[in-house]
Amino acid sequence: MKEGSIMANVKIIFATITGNNEEIADVISESLENKNLTVDVEEISQADAFDLENFDAVVVCPYTYDGGSLPEEGLDFFDDLEEVDLTGKFYAVAGSGDEFYGDDFCVAVDKFDAQLAKSGATKATENIKINFAPDTTEDIDNLDRLAADLSQKLGF
Ligand SMILES: Cc1cc2nc3c(=O)[nH]c(=O)nc-3n(C[C@H](O)[C@H](O)[C@H](O)COP(=O)(O)O)c2cc1C
After folding, report:
1. CATH number of 9-153: 3.30.420.40, 3.40.50.2020, 3.40.50.360, 3.30.365.10?
2. Of 55, 64, 71, the residue nearest 97 (C-alpha)
3. Mean pLDDT throughout 98-114?
4. I want to staple 61 with a disulfide (CB 3.0 to 4.6 A). Which of 1, 19, 21, 100 is the partner?
5. Region 25-39: what's the mean pLDDT?
6. What is the pTM (predicted TM-score) of this model?
């Protein structure tokens, strides 16, 4: 932990229809809590982009819909990311899609990455794309690596 610093807090925001991205959010949350970070998990339609100014980092876990579309219930949050100033904070994106969709696989992950970059936040680690639920060892290892990279960037 950085000398004199208080506990870092991380916001995790997920969008889900069938539960896979909530599972991803939960895996990341548990991994970060194991590193003694404070975590707040919220569903995207309830999330306020301006509230992110109260956190040290944000992780977004979106599903991808028709032809590489963003989750519709997350469009307000997505648009507001252009208005917030998250300079000095970190972000990461990890989402679930379906590899069947080929070039459109997990496109929402890359779209959130580009949008979060506009907020001034610094990308903490590579984007993670998961086929359906995070149920392989590789998926869990990747999500643990995201948590490790993020906590290291936060000085923990
Ligand atoms: C109508 C429809 C369109 C979809 N389009 C895409 C797509 O373009 N790219 C992709 O990667 N996944 C696509 N998916 C798959 C979902 O993103 C995938 O099932 C994901 O795991 C859902 O996450 P959730 O369980 O959190 O809702 C689509 C699913 C449906 C039902």
Report:
1. 3.40.50.360
2. 64
3. 98
4. 21
5. 97
6. 0.97
